Amino acid sequence: MPTLDDATRGRILFGGDYNPEQWPEETWKDDVRLMKEAGVTSVTLGVFSWSKIEPRPGAREFGWLDRLMDLMHDHGIGVVLATPTSSPPPWMGRLHPETLPRDENGQTEWWGSRQHFSHSSAVYRRYAAALTEDLAARYGTHPALTMWHINNEYCTPDWGDEAATTFRRWLQDRYGTLDALNTAWGTAFWSQGYGSWDEILPPRRAHYMKNPTHVLDFKRFTSDMLLECYRTERDIVRRHTPHIPVTTNFMPFWSGQDAWRWAAEEDLVSIDIYPDPKDPLGGQYNAMIGDMTRSQAGGGPWMLMEQAAGPVNWRGVNHPKPYGLNRLWSLQAVAHGADAVCYFQWRQSRQGAEKFHSGMVGHAGERGRTFREIKEIGAELALLGPQMTGARAHADVAILHDWHSWWAGEQEGRPSSLLQYPEIVRSWHRALWEGHLTAAFAHPAADLTPYRLVVVPHLYLLDDTSIDNLLAYVREGGTLVCGFLTGVADADDRVRPGGMDPRLRELFGIDLIHEWWPLDAGERTDCGEFHGTLWSEEIQAAPGAHTVAGYRGGELDGLPAVLRNGAAWYVSTLPEPAALRDLLGEAARDAGVRPVLDDLPTGVEAVRRGPLLFVLNHRREHTVVTVPGRHHDLLTGATVESSLRLGRYGAAVLKEAT
Q1: In a 10 Å sphere around its CB, with 0-12 CB exposed, 13-18 middle and 19+ buried, how is residue 657 labelled?
Q2: Could you say which of 91, 312, 363, 382 is the most buried, measured as most Cβ atoms within 10 Å of its Cβ?
Q3: In the beta sheet, which residues pair with residue 563?
Q4: Side-chain-side CA neighbours of residue 143 (13 Å)
Q5: Is 534 left (phi over 0), alpha (psi -120 to 50) or beta?
Q6: Which residues have a catalytic role annotated?
Q7: Which pLDDT belongs to residue 571?
């Protein structure tokens, strides 16, 4: 199977989405000149070019793309060639309205934007496959081709009639019989029993709350149908070019895809990351998405397919990046495993919905600050590539994450709508990041033996395989720290006896969970040395379990907030950030996990990737970092002995001196 190494060839890919069809052809030569000046080694072509290639059903206009492919090759720039199937031409929706998706109210989502396709439409799939076939046949042997990029940001659910028919087939494959489906969905509640497969619809708009397992299965189905679309196109290009790696770009921490399953179908994993420049924890978010993507890539290199060179256009207020932040976050992605650093897009558009989204070449042109920074980043990545492509970042800590649990936990009739799964996971990752502990992510059923410490921020749904895996991990010497409302439901979203799987209660030293006590927005609960937020639980400890922290005052006075039973910890609230950092730091020390560097200043991150040590200053202020030993800074060529001075948003990539 081809890998990212086959595309990088010992260098870090640097570039971005290139949409030359938006510009007069005389602009292309100027683009290439600027690309060479900036050190661009890779461009993605064709992402939204379906109507350009196929202006009428069955027509093919490849001449412009032929010239572009040749132009890129003549200047030593590799091409990531996209199948443009995320945005069908207007003629398809007009001639074949069944290819358009419908929302849960039954309203058609019309053409005029993007992602306006039904994943279940046979007509859409036929046109998409035919276009992919012709692209692969025409360009499969072109020397500029380095990678295939299938579709773009798969995300569109569909509640339409074709999706309903496909959903029924999917359910028949999953359950076999209506009796099994009725049992799994608990349809005895509210007289929902199904007597015919034809009675089953997608979970469209209803009078009151919907059946949560019905909704859960629809989310599973949607992820699977989009994956079928991806696999169809992937298999076509693989048949023509088995030596060329294939990817599709994930959106960061997106709920619509089971990315563990998707990643297993890709030759390399790629992601789009857009931290908010105004977020004081934007660097932590960037690190978290990098850690998650690296983990989906099996610990190996991954591709930053898209980031912004400056502001985006889809937030309420879209802030530019202060000088140095683009460089810092790009180097941070490399530190966390990226072997490709790319942008949306090369040249900022002058028309269309994204004309206020930045580009590597902004509206200010080549004299603008953004392009000057792009050139600096390109030069530094060229220095790093030969030193580190293919190297891995090591982590002794794993954060467990599962999309099915996320989906199930979002149901309407839950104890607290304030529980937002992504924010809980981010809180726990933040605690590790601020404690200078490099983390990986793992599926709860994955092999956990490489990790000394495993943390579970919140997994409402856990199947039996995952529970057995956690028990075995602790039994074999691992340290486990688990957050609240975990192990409550089985794979069918059926509440387990006692409100938590009995095996987990025994593991954590919990005799009984009497009640869940969600907290209001802004409410805190006193846990002695810290305050808890968001959630609390009325727990009765089992004999032998140690209360690490107890509730003080209120209904839960004297009851355990944090329990420890040997190497298994249970945290029944969300401690404030400093408290969660200290708690996980204590568990890490007990597990033999140490920070990459000791005594790091607040806001400074240290990450080891292969033989290199990245030291990243996420603050505007200058700082001094203690670095034992003697190192060479690959970015400046300077020798570093004992201490390192970093400017605002400064970075160093250190290699130990021999």
Answers
A1: exposed
A2: 312
A3: 547, 570
A4: 8
A5: left
A6: 153, 306
A7: 98
Across 237-251, average pLDDT: 98
Whether 572 contacts 587, CB under 8 Å = no
Taking only the tens place, the pLDDT of each residue in 420-433 is 999 999 999 999 99
SS3 440: strand
Residues with Cβ within 8 Å of 143's Cβ and at least 6 positions away in sequence, in order, are 73
> Each residue of 458-517: pLDDT tens digit?
999 999 999 999 999 999 999 999 999 999 999 999 999 999 999 999 999 999 999 999
What CATH number is given for 397-590 in this structure? 3.40.50.880
Residue 12: pLDDT band (50, 70, 90) is very high
Which residue bears the tokens 């003080």? 552
Q: Counting beta carbons within 10 angstroms of the beta carbon of residue 542, is it exposed (0 to 12), middle (13 to 18) or buried (19 or more)?
A: middle
570: left (phi over 0), alpha (psi -120 to 50) or beta: beta
520-552 tens-digit pLDDT: 999 999 999 999 999 999 999 999 999 999 999
Count of alpha carbons within 13 angstroms of residue 620, beta-carbon side? 6
Report the candidate in 537, 378, 400, 576 with the shortest Cα–Cα distance to residue 481. 400
Could you give the residue ranges of the DSSP H alpha helices within 176-251? Answer: 178-185, 212-240
Residue 10: pLDDT over 90? no
Interatomic CA distance for residues 482 and 459, integer angstroms: 9
Q: Counting Cβ atoms within 10 Å, is residue 446 exposed (0-12), middle (13-18) or buried (19+)?
A: middle
Place of tokens 């907290």: 519
- Report yes or no: 617 and 651 within 8 Å, Cβ to Cβ: yes
The answer to whether domain 4-159+227-388 has CATH 3.40.50.150 is no
CA distance 344 to 439: 27
564-597: pLDDT as tens digits: 999 999 999 999 999 999 999 999 999 999 999 9
- Residue 217: which of 248, 190, 189, 187 has the closest Cα? 187
Yes or no: say if 583 and 449 are a contact pair by the CB < 8 Å rule: no
- Domain ranges in the chain are 4-159+227-388, 397-590, 604-656
Please write the tens of the pLDDT for every residue from 18-56: 999 999 999 999 999 999 999 999 999 999 999 999 999
Structure tokens at 438: 């490099």
CA distances 271 to 60, 317, 338, Å, are 30, 23, 10
Tell me if 580 sits within 8 A of 568, measured CB to CB: no
Mean pLDDT value across the chain: 97
Contacts of 495 (CB under 8 A, 6+ apart): 488, 489
With a pLDDT cut of 90, the percent of the chain lying above it is: 97
| Residues 6 or more apart whose Cβ sits within 8 Å of residue 280 | none
Instruction: Please name which of 590, 582, 595 lies closest in space to residue 480, comparing C-alpha atoms.
Output: 590
Do the beta carbons of residue 241 and residue 222 sit within 8 Å?
no
264 membership: H or E segment, kind and range? none
What superfamily in CATH does domain 604-656 come from? Golgi alpha-mannosidase II (2.60.40.1180)
The pLDDT of residue 390 is 87
If you ran DSSP here, which 8-state letter would residue 266 be given?
Answer: -
φ, ψ (nearest 5 deg) of residue 526: -80, 120
β-bridge mates for residue 481, sequence order: 455, 569
